[in-house]
Amino acid sequence: MEKSIIATEKAPGAIGPYSQAVKIGNLIYTSGQLPIDPETGELIEDVKKATAQALENVKAILEKAGTSMEKVIKTLVFVKDLKDFEAINEVYATYFSKNYPARSCVEVARLPKDARVEIEVIASL
């Protein structure tokens, strides 16, 4: 299958040797999205606002690819502190219908730029 690179200015650019997303067949795989405001380059610190920004970045990439949050089938959420789990879930739930995608949530020692959350998804077209 042919691989296509997805890129949009409505989400932060890659901060390393990777793409914002890759399309293979009818699936879109996003890279982990940090809570960076693409207009200002500012890293969002408040965990609820950070979660929303990371998901807005995912949403922008999916829209560029021709799909939507409704087509997300799997998410992976990396968190700096699992004590933020409830706050993250509160925001996360607003981005998906009741047909929630499968999800993993993992506490990690450190994220790029010392972010509090990073989110990646797999979505269908």
Automatic annotation (TrEMBL):
Pfam family, any one: Ribonuc_L-PSP
Assigned GO CC terms: cytosol
GO molecular function, one term: deaminase activity
Domain of life per record: Bacteria
Gene3D superfamilies per UniProt: RutC-like
InterPro entries: RidA, RidA_CS, RutC-like_sf, YjgF/YER057c/UK114
Segments forming a coiled coil: none
PANTHER family: 2-IMINOBUTANOATE/2-IMINOPROPANOATE DEAMINASE RIDA (PTHR11803), 2-IMINOBUTANOATE_2-IMINOPROPANOATE DEAMINASE (PTHR11803:SF39)
Family, similarity comment: Belongs to the RutC family.
Protein name (Swiss-Prot/TrEMBL): 2-iminobutanoate/2-iminopropanoate deaminase
Source species: Maledivibacter halophilus
